[in-house]
Every structure is written in structure tokens, then in C-alpha cells.
């Protein structure tokens, strides 16, 4: 789900995005409602009505998916776990939760909030369906389909395969009993992969039974779930490997302070190339004002190097992403991935101690992997 997304705006501080794959499912849902389902059930409607009502119903459906994800997000924030964005994509919605939940109770409530919201919506549309029954009206058609689909959403998400909500509920319960999040995640992702495998098998069975489209769809959902639980598992293994190790172990501490009026070509020829250092804090008036990185130098055309001062290309101090020397490396890995940055500046109080770079961290992980330590 990385890459191609459309920003829709913010709801309660959470960025709402559409992945381009979402348009595929939106067209499919609208088409199956307007082209098949509604004409089959309500043959007396005017032709245009199928498409207008189909479109409105499809939009309300994705509104329901969004409400489900918003419920997860709001509860998550309430329990102190920040949510940066919600992305709607081909298989539904996903809230981007940057950290693991802090307590089993928090995880349980957070996981249940989505399916409960879907159940609530199913109930509301169910009431609307009940009061309009026998009318055959547009409202009745919309309400009956949305009641059913929200009920299906709630039930599907409660399947105990991590990362589905039911899998999170399962993980929270194992966590609460064992007191061990890692163990709980290991068991829950294992079960998740089993459930995913079941989906793939069921999909293949459907394909052999002649239901090609349905079978492919089910198998794809299984494949997506398998990927998601496998990557959660891999992340956990990485965290295990990094556990107990701190930023200070791998940071580059050799930072040569440079004056603000130094020219870029002098920096490159006299300091960067001879020493191989990558960390150059720019000092002015006895205080660090920013940092010049190799990446910043690359953005200036070479012929301008003799005419460009380092303070013109530095990252200003207030824009530097910083980290403490005693911070866990697993947190650093999460931040680099989550914020999409290649380095973090190590600071203690007002002191700039060095930097920790992504390639150094990846190298460290690879080394430990090779040595099995
Ligand atoms: Zn959910």
C-alpha cells in the first residue's frame, strides 16, 4: 500500500488517503449494484436510477469502511497510540498505526471498535430497512444492501486471523493471559497465516468449481493476509534482534563542526573526501545552526559549489529529526520506516553528538544476521 495515494483531507487530525487500487473496487461495487443487483431485484426502476442509486450506495459503503477505520483510530489515540493516516485500498481500509499498543486491554478495545461500529451501522441501516419494507423504494434498496454488507464486514473482520481485527482480539487475549506481547504476536501471526492459507485453498477450490471471479477474489484476500502476517512476523524478528541495543552503539560520532561561511567545494575537497565523514554541523556564533549532508550537497549542481555557502544548503536545526543516544534501535528502525527518513541526528540536551544513518543500521542488522548474534 505504499506509493500511489490520493490525499482526501483530514478528519480529527487523521489524514485520509485513497490508494489508486481503491478505484478498481469502487467501479466493481458500483457496477455490480447498478448493472446486476438492483435491476434483478427492482425491475420497475427507470434505467438512470440504477446508476444513481448504485453510485450513492457504493459511496455510503466506503463511508462505512471509513467509519470502521476511524473507530479503530480514535480508540487507538485514546490509548496513547498515534495514528497518522487511514488509507482506503482494494481490500478495504487500513489505519496506519505507528506503534504497538501499550496494553492488552488497549489492543482489545481498539480491535473491537471497528467491528462494533460496523455492527452499529448494520443495525441503523437495518432499522431503516425495517421501516421502509414493502415499499420497494430507493431508500429500501440502499438500506437493505448496506445493512447486509456492514454485517458481513463485522463478521469477516472478526475471523481470528491476524492482522484481521479478530486476530488482534485473539492476540490481546493471549497477551493478557501470558503477559508476553512477543509470544502473543508469534502465536497470532502463526494462526493468521493458517487462516490466510485456508482462504487461498478455498479460492482455488472455487476456481476449480467454475467460480473463477469469486475464487480469484478469495485467493487474493488470502494472499494479502498471508503477506501482512508474514511481514508482521518479520518485523517482530527484527525487533527481537535489536532488543536491548541503543543508538549510541552504532551512531557516527565524528562530527566536524564547520563555519557557516565555508563554501561547498572547500567542504567537499578539504573535509568530506579526505576523511569520509558524513556529519557536518554548521556553527555560527558558537551555536549549531544546522547540518550539511551528502544528500544536500548532491542537490546543488557542481559548478555552483564554489559560490554556495554551506549555510545556504544546510538542514536548519529546527527541521532536524532527532533521537537520544540511549534510545532503542528498534524504535529508530520504526521511525525511519514510518517517517521515511535516512538519518536521525543524535542529540543530548543542546549537544549534537552525531548521527545514525539508515544504511549503517541495515548493515548492523545484516551483520548480526550473518553472525547469528
Ligand atoms: Zn477493522
Which regions contain 5 or more consecutive residues with pLDDT less than 50? none
The beta-strand count equals 11
- Fraction in beta strands: 15-25%
Record the strand order, biggest sheet.
1-2-3-4
| Shape annotation | elongated
Mean pLDDT: 88
Number of helices: 13
Largest sheet: 4 strands, mixed
The set of bound ligands, ions and cofactors reads: zinc ion
Structural class: alpha/beta
Radius of gyration, rounded?
26 Å
Q: How do the SSEs run, as a string of H and E? A: EEHHEEHHHHHHEHEEHHEEHEEH
Task: Please bin the fraction of helical residues.
Answer: 55-70%
Kindly report how far apart the N and C termini lie: 32 Å
Characterize this entry briefly.
The chain is an alpha/beta fold and 373 residues long. 60% of the residues lie in helices and 15% in strands.
Textual characterization of the structure:
- This protein is α/β, with parallel strands linked by helices and 373 residues long.
- α2 runs antiparallel to α3 (104-131), α2 (47-78) packs parallel to α4 (138-157) and α5 (165-178) packs antiparallel against α6 (181-208).
- The strands form 3 sheets. A 4-stranded mixed sheet has the order 1-2-3-4. A 4-stranded mixed sheet has the order 5-6-7-8.
- It has helices spanning 21-41, 47-78, 104-131, 138-157, 165-178, 181-208, 212-242, 247-250, 264-275, 294-298, 310-313, 329-339, 358-371, and strands at residues 5-11, 14-19, 83-89, 92-97, 258-259, 280-284, 287-292, 315-316, 322-323, 343-348, 351-357.
- The longest helix is centred in the N-terminal third of the chain and has 32 residues, at 47-78.
- The structure holds zinc ion.
- Zinc ion binds at residues 68, 72, 114, 157, 165.
Amino acid at each position: 500500500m505504499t506509493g500511489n495515494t490520493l490525499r482526501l483531507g483530514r478528519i480529527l487530525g487523521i489524514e485520509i488517503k485513497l490508494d489508486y487500487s481503491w478505484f478498481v473496487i469502487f467501479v466493481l461495487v458500483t457496477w455490480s449494484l447498478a448493472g446486476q443487483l438492483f435491476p434483478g431485484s427492482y425491475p420497475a426502476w427507470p434505467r438512470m436510477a440504477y446508476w444513481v442509486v448504485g453510485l450513492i450506495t457504493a459511496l455510503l459503503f466506503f463511508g462505512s469502511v471509513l467509519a470502521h477505520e476511524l473507530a479503530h483510530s480514535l480508540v487507538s489515540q485514546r490509548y496513547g497510540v498515534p495514528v497518522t493516516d487511514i488509507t482506503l485500498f482494494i481490500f478495504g481500509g487500513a489505519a496506519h498505526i505507528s506503534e504497538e499498543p501499550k496494553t492488552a486491554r488497549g489492543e482489545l478495545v481498539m480491535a473491537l471498535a471497528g467491528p462494533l461500529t460496523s455492527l452499529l451501522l448494520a443495525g441503523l441501516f437495518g432499522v431503516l430497512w425495517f421501516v421502509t419494507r414493502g415499499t420497494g423504494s430507493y431508500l429500501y434498496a440502499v438500506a437493505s444492501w448496506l445493512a447486509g454488507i456492514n454485517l458481513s464486514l463485522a463478521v469477516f473482520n472478526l475471523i481470528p486471523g491476524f492482522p484481521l481485527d479478530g486476530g488482534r482480539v485473539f492476540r490481546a487475549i493471549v497477551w493478557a493471559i501470558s503477559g508476553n506481547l512477543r509470544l502473543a504476536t508469534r502465536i497470532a501471526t502463526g494462526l493468521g497465516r493458517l487462516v490466510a492459507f485456508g482462504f487461498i485453498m478455498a479460492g482455488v477450490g472455487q476456481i476449480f468449481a467454475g467460480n473463477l471471479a469469486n475464487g480469484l477474489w478469495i485467493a487474493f484476500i488470502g494472499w494479502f493476509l498471508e503477506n501482512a502476517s508474514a511481514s508482521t512476523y518479520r518485523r517482530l524478528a527484527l525487533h527481537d534482534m535489536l532488543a536491548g541495543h541503543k543508538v549510541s552503539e552504532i551512531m557516527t560520532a565524528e562530527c566536524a563542526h564547520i563555519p557557516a561561511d565555508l563554501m561547498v567545494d572547500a567542504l567537499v575537497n578539504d573535509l568530506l573526501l579526505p576523511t569520509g565523514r558524513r556529519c557536518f554541523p554548521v556553527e555560527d556564533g558558537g551555536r549549531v545552526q544546522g547540518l550539511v549532508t551528502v544528500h544536500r550537497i548532491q542537490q546543488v549542481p557542481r559548478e555552483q559549489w564554489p559560490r554556495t555557502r554551506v549555510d545556504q544548503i544546510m538542514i536548519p536545526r529546527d527541521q532536524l529529526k532527532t533521537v537520544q543516544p540511549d534510545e532503542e534501535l528498534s524504535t529508530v528502525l520504526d521511525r525511519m520506516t514510518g517517517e521515511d527518513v535516512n538519518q536521525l541526528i543524535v542529540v543530548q540536551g543542546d549537544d549534537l553528538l552525531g548521527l545514525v544513518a539508515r544504511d549503517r543500521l541495515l548493515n548492523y542488522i545484516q551483520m548480526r544476521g550473518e553472525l547469528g548474534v
